[in-house]
Amino acid sequence: MLRLLNLELQKLLLNRTSKTLIFISFILPFFVILLSSFKINVFGFFTLELGELGIFNFPMIWHITTFFASQFKFFFAIVVVSMIGNEYSNKTLKQNLIDGLSKKEFILSKFYTIIFFSLVSTVLITIISFCIGMYYSSYNEAFIVLSETKFLVAYFIKLVGFFSLCLFFGMLVKRSAFALAFIFILFILEWLFFGLMAWKLNAEIAEKTQNFFPLKSMYKLIDQPFQRVVMTKFPDKANLTYDYAVHWHEITIVLGWTALFIFLSYLLLKTRDL
Known about the structure:
Blueprint: H1 2-14, H2 16-27, H3 32-35, E1 39-42, E2 46-49, H4 60-69, H5 74-89, H6 92-98, H7 103-136, H8 142-145, H9 150-173, H10 176-200, H11 203-210, H12 214-220, H13 226-233, H14 248-271
Antiparallel strand pairs: 1-2
Helix pairs in contact: 1-7, 2-5, 4-7, 4-9, 5-9, 5-10, 7-9, 7-14, 9-10, 9-12, 9-14, 10-11, 12-14
């Protein structure tokens, strides 16, 4: 495992573009810290400071930071599809196989890299969230601080699942730009199917079915926190209530897609004439 990971990291760090994108993808989560310092001037009457609203209290902080940090995943997605594009354009894939690397090991090296960077990103957002929470939160009891750390697990699984999808499309089309375009096409197709099912059946069945789609299932791991923030300020508004928790069946769905994307990537490489 370490040998394959080291091999892939050497390739990425020797490429200036990949190295820059990796650096950006690790730096961007730190911009979550800026959320806590936002001050909004409301027509000159008063200044609204997000950090003083209580939204960075434990345990809500885990939900807030993982949701916003996950929006930056596209930068490393470019790295993932570039890993495959460069292998084909630079002929390094064929050379690696000639040098004794099996096709299974080749795919595993990419997957280990995805896990490694997802784990590093998760550790970073854990440290950031903990520091912001300790500064702003009025709760410091251990059971409260740790009560919603499942969002960190969801964040990690979300990154691994999305980057595995990028890996599959990279293997499918061999070109970075086309792979990213396919992700956008998949997003459109998911919503077209949702609209068609809502029209032919009903919205409830359509929504439940959509939650099994690849991109939607990954999004559902960490639901938007905006309603939750409003709920804390207006607890009597029953119409604002929604299920924002991380559920294990949602994690299972994404893990299933992840396994399928990795298997299909291997199948493409195994059956394709290089």
